[in-house]
Specification:
alpha/beta; 11 strands; 6-stranded mixed sheet; Rossmann fold; 31% helix
């Protein structure tokens, strides 16, 4: 992987979700090119829905945590997080009973099937689009859309110039990758990706065919932010 000697890293997530990561990169002397590829907007939802009693709350995104935290009064309900980063944010936001499945929505589905009984109720907070919906014949799963994402398709000319000097880009989800690739295609930047190393939280984020577009695609053995950061700095 890279050593930091003023290598340039493209950070693709919105600022609110990138502060800690950017601080980490600067600590290791990387140049940071921050150009988000999507905006996050709160959806219209009922505060009463957010505050329903339930046997567990489900989160597959940090965005959902950020949106509902100011409105959710009861924070002792069991929270099921898709991964460690989402779990850490829940704990930082005052939720006191949090587990991380360190996996995907499929792992959450398996956890629901194996750990909840008939007539129990779960609240699932998500974005408008989900890669995999959660369903159960036994357990009642109430899904509430609390945010929407919008691709950014216009960037400053300075970013297009800076793109030629990118050494590394990190992708934390398939949705982020899709938004980034749409931007790359719009400005015909595909050829320059051959000189960029892509680091992904999970290898499945970039499909096999698309991996050919990059200099390399690397994922940590353990899909956590800590493992990804160690991979970046070659620890």
């Amino acid at each position: 992987m890279l050593n930091s000697q003023k290598k340039t890293v493209w950070v693709t997530r919105p600022k609110i979700r990138s502060k800690t990561f950017i601080s980490f990169l600067k600590e290791y002397d990387f140049n940071v090119l921050h150009q988000p590829v999507f905006h996050v907007h709160p959806a219209r939802f009922s505060i009463d829905d957010i505050n329903q009693s339930a046997d567990a709350l489900i989160f597959t995104s940090q965005n959902a945590v950020n949106i509902i935290t100011p409105f959710r009064e009861e924070k002792s309900t069991l929270c099921i997080a898709v991964g460690d980063s989402t779990a850490d944010l829940l704990k930082e936001s005052g939720f006191v009973n949090v587990i991380s499945l360190d996996g995907t929505a499929k792992d959450i589905q398996n956890y629901i099937d194996n750990n909840f009984q008939e007539n129990q109720t779960l609240l699932y907070f998500s974005g408008q689009k989900v890669k995999r919906d959660l369903q159960s014949d036994r357990v009642k799963i109430n899904r509430f859309v609390v945010y929407q994402t919008e691709y950014i398709d216009d960037v400053d000319p300075e970013f297009l110039t800076a793109f030629l000097n990118i050494d590394l880009v990190c992708f934390f989800s398939s949705a982020t990758y899709a938004a980034a690739w749409a931007l790359i295609e719009k400005y015909n930047l595909q050829v320059f990706c051959k000189d960029i190393e892509a680091v992904v939280l999970r290898s499945s984020i970039i499909d096999v065919e698309h991996q050919k577009n990059w200099k390399s695609v690397t994922a940590p053995q353990h899909p956590s932010m800590v493992s990804l950061q160690k991979l970046i700095v070659h620890e």
